[in-house]
């Protein structure tokens, strides 16, 4: 009997990309494909410590995990302020190991790798294995990366002068709303030799040459940007929101699987019990994701803003997220005791889906945004880096799903935005968030855009694999 295609998935070794690609892996498994999921040793060890991933993958006989070193010393922080060191280490040290891995063990018939790991494209091509790219950041940001050469050519980069409100014209389709301040923050360096500018230009070039580009979005959310992107990258599969897509498929197959965590920190599930005792849509959920670092002054501004708003809040304070010692004023500890709950890491998907949650103060990471959009939760965005600057602009200006608090960290502004989302402008926002949540859900149902793109992806993987094995025989 002919074996199904064996797909190796290589995600970026970070929490957000890992969440999205693990869902993709499960979706492909459910369609009968065999999966090898490639993790760095560091991420693998943390997953084993904090998640129930092994129990989960046992439900799929055709799902295996393999590991590879990331080349960094074990005590390297691998945090938001050093992510380029991780990318650089992978780029320079991993290719020979990756090649060896593709050529050993059960034959791999197709690769899906994060499109920022450009070397995977070269290695797969060299040994004749079809490769699809997956990008787990927002399509809008990816489109800005594609447009970096254009911005440099038109002299919009580097910026002249410090006015961040100047409109940017060199990213087609975004002329109406894109300001300098909405570009990825590394564009503010004023230097074309900035390592991030150089990195994102070179590591994006090969994306259009892969068999296809898989994106975690749905057509109805990103239509104008996708139509621009298809002019240079014609084969795009929009199959998101991936977390909800997987849930929908499991529900349709009536195969409830045990609650699953793929967290790199220990989830504190007590916050769900706390939420159970709060009134409907009364709680603001606060989280800045897995990489953002908040300094002690910013931490104090947020805390005062939250307590002064008089609203209930659930706040994720990652143990490694705040820099500097803070003495906590009595009014803050008192206000938190009365109306707040703080955890080190939350089961975020479940939190956002909880009926007590009525708003989300977020760093605008793409996974967090999709999770919020799907649940119809309005957002206050305080972007930190990379795609978050443009994501937050889209939330306020294009999608009307909340407010952009970019470059502002002031207790009175924070308080005012919280009151707006939770009280004053709640009804107005709820129309647009409910509409977008419905579109997201519809895209996942039979015949919907994400549903159909996933079917097409699976079919295309099968066809590519058939063709390349036929070429081998000839
Ligand atoms: N997340 C979580 N618990 C938390 C905070 C975040 O499970 O307490 C998850 C969240 O659901 C999302 C991911 O971590 O899937 C963060 O990815 P995102 O793209 O939003 O931001 P990043 O961490 O990459 O900046």
From TrEMBL:
One of its GO terms (molecular function) is quercetin 3-O-glucosyltransferase activity. CDD domains: GT1_Gtf-like. Keywords: Glycosyltransferase, Transferase. Its EC number is 2.4.1.-. The keyword Glycosyltransferase applies. Pfam families: UDPGT. It comes from the Eukaryota. The keyword Glycosyltransferase applies. Belongs to the UDP-glycosyltransferase family. This is Glycosyltransferase.
């Amino acid at each position: 009997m002919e074996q199904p295609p064996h797909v190796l998935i290589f995600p970026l070794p970070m929490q957000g990309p890992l969440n999205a690609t693990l869902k993709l892996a499960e979706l492909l498994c459910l369609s009968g494909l065999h999966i090898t999921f490639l993790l760095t040793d560091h991420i693998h060890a943390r997953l084993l410590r904090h998640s129930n991933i092994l129990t989960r993958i046992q439900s799929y006989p055709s799902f295996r995990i393999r590991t590879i070193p990331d080349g960094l010393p074990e005590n390297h922080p691998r945090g938001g302020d050093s992510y380029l060191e991780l990318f650089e280490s992978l780029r320079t040290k991993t290719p020979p190991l990756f090649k060896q891995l593709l050529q050993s063990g059960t034959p791999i018939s197709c690769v899906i790798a994060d499109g920022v790991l450009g070397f995977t494209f070269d290695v797969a091509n060299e040994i004749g294995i079809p490769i699809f790219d997956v990008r787990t950041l927002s399509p809008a940001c990816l489109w800005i990366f594609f447009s970096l050469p254009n911005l440099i050519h038109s002299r919009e980069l580097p910026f002249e002068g410090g006015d961040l409100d100047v409109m940017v014209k060199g990213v087609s389709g975004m002329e109406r709303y894109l300001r300098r301040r909405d570009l990825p923050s590394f564009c503010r360096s004023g230097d074309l030799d900035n390592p991030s500018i150089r990195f994102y230009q070179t590591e994006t070039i090969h994306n259009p040459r892969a068999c296809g580009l898989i994106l975690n979005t749905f057509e109805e959310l990103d239509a104008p940007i996708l139509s621009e992107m298809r002019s240079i990258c014609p084969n795009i599969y929009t199959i998101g929101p991936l977390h909800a897509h997987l849930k929908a498929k499991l529900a349709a197959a009536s195969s409830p699987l045990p609650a699953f965590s793929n967290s790199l920190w220990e989830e504190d599930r007590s916050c769900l019990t706390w939420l159970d005792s709060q009134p409907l849509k009364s709680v603001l959920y606060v989280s800045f994701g897995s990489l953002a670092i908040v300094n002690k002054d910013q931490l104090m501004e947020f805390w005062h803003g939250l307590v002064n708003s008089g609203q209930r809040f659930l706040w994720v304070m990652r143990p490694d997220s705040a820099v500097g010692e803070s003495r906590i004023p009595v009014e803050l500890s008192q206000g938190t005791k009365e109306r707040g709950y703080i955890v080190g890491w939350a089961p975020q998907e479940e939190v956002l889906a909880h009926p007590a949650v009525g708003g989300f103060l977020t760093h605008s990471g793409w996974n967090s945004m999709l999770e919020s959009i799907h649940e119809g939760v309005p957002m206050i965005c305080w972007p930190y880096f990379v795609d978050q600057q443009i994501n937050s602009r889209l939330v306020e200006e294009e999608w009307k799903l909340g407010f952009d608090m970019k470059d502002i960290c002031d207790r009175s502004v924070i308080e005012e935005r919280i009151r707006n989302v939770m009280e004053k402008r709640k009804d107005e926002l709820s129309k647009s968030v409910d509409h977008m949540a419905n579109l997201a859900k519809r895209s996942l149902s039979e015949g919907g855009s994400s549903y159909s793109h996933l079917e097409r992806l699976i079919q295309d993987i099968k066809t590519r694999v058939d063709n390349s094995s036929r070429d081998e025989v000839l």
